[in-house]
User: Which sequence fits this backbone?
């Protein structure tokens, strides 16, 4: 099992460069095509001190973000929609299957979802609403809920050169969790260690999940994926806080989680794991709905 079609969503911010590099690496490893869609911001990007950096061709081994900050400091580059397309064309040379470039310069959520539906994996960024780099109509949760595909969400803070080596699976036995594990298989196939983690209010709650967790552990072993089971008590913390704290302890490079067991609106009103991960993620999170 492998991916054949990777789509990365880019925007007018400097973090797009790192996200493009990560998507390129995944496409190269999976021998997949790489396509990109650029969302033009409908808000002014805060001005920065102008600077330049020499252009560098992107390769799967190039360290993420080498030129991102310096290039995006320059208004000439920042205002030029062709700049990221040129960076994308450099990346496509690194993958054998080629890919397509798209640009959405007007509000069109349906077009973005339709592009996502025709990909095996969508790589998108966590939204930094204070940066003004993404259009106001763009909501990552809409992509997660409506595209029917796995979505890899990348934090806007930090550098992430690869994912899938040390993985934490957020397990609650739900349909969404099962779907997320299955969708993650191509990426975690070469993982060094996978932690299958469940968070419950007390120890008595674990008993009902243990059979299902052992079944999933056996299933992953048949894919040659080594799995460790982790049972954690929530206590006074939220589930997403426990997951994120444990991800730091284990030095994971990706969390796998089912998304939106309840509707996004209900999660917005009363809170939820998916919403908490989207807002506070510290490592990339692969979500499926």
Assistant:
């Amino acid at each position: 099992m492998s991916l054949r079609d990777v789509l990365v969503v880019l925007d007018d911010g400097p973090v797009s460069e790192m996200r493009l590099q990560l998507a390129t690496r995944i496409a190269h490893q999976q021998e997949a095509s790489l396509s990109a869609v650029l969302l033009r911001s409908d808000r002014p990007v805060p001005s920065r001190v102008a600077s330049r950096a020499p252009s560098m061709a992107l390769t799967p081994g190039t360290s993420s973000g080498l030129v991102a900050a310096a290039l995006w400091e320059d208004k000439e580059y920042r205002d030029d929609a062709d700049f990221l397309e040129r960076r994308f064309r450099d990346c496509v040379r690194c993958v054998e299957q080629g890919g397509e470039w798209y640009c959405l310069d007007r509000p069109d959520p349906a077009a973005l979802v339709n592009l996502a539906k025709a990909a095996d994996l969508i790589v998108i960024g966590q939204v930094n609403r204070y940066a003004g780099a993404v259009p106001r109509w763009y909501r990552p949760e809409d992509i997660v809920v409506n595209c029917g595909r796995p979505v890899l969400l990348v934090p806007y803070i930090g550098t992430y050169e690869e994912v899938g080596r040390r993985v934490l699976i957020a397990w609650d036995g739900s349909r969404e969790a099962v779907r997320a594990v299955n969708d993650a298989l191509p990426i975690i196939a070469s993982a060094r260690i996978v932690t299958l983690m469940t968070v419950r209010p007390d120890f008595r709650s674990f008993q009902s999940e243990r059979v299902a967790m052992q079944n999933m552990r056996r299933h992953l072993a048949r894919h040659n994926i080594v799995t460790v089971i982790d049972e954690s008590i929530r206590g006074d913390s939220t589930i997403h806080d426990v997951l994120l704290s444990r991800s730091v302890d284990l030095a994971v490079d990706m969390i796998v989680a089912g998304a939106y067991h309840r509707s996004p609106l209900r999660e917005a009103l009363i809170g939820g794991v998916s919403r908490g991960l989207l807002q506070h993620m510290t490592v990339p999170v692969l979500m499926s709905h």
